[in-house]
């Protein structure tokens, strides 16, 4: 447990000390929130769906957690390049503990990022359906962070060059985000789109966030939690397997 804590703390300290990263990483979510939330708000309201800011704010929080957690895997490439990963792998600690510590560290940073964006949403005018449901929302934030931090760690274990990692992540992350229903309702979709959105893990995280924050569910609380827990277990297992195959 000591190794897990140290690696978790290292990821957290590295994030806190990088003020530029904190500010810049909030830029894209704020752009979506302001440009789409207020730009498409009148259109959404005229269609009889209410406030678009209320609808998309949970999706923007989910997007922030997705981006931050997946790209936490890039830290492994930096550690590989500068030799820290090799020192970690030859330490008398199981690789499973190393993987869990790095994953939890990346997930914690993603939760902090999601919390900051939620605060910005509140400043912009978003109001949750019930303040008492915020713990449920943070449960989904944490589950999204764990799922995609494990995915990022697994991919970072396989890919060795920075450019390749960024290309793969951009190829995966943008479809995951846009097909999750973060920016549009999942009702009345064509059959093909409906099937694709069902295969997207972020769909269930965004649905859980939207249900907890504005009481609008497409599925249900138990369905979303159960499915995300299963996906998290699969990604953690796969990531752990890939991580254990890294050669020191």
Tell me, what's the shape?
globular
Beta-strand share of residues: under 5%
How many domains would you count in the coordinates? 1
Most strands sheet: none
* Rg on CA atoms, Å: 18 Å
Class of secondary structure makeup: mainly alpha
Number of helical stretches of at least 4 residues: 13
H and E order: HHHHHHHHHHHHH
Mean of the pLDDT scores? 83
Residue windows where pLDDT falls under 50 for at least 5 positions: none
Euclidean distance between termini CA atoms: 22 Å
Helix coverage percent of residues? over 70%
Let me know the number of strands. 0
Domain ABC transmembrane type-2: 20-246
Main location: membrane
Subcellular location: Cell membrane; Membrane
Family: Belongs to the ABC-2 integral membrane protein family.
What does this structure look like?
The protein is mainly alpha-helical. The chain has one domain. It is 78% helix and 0% strand. It is built from 13 helices and no strands. α6 crosses α9. The mean pLDDT is 83.
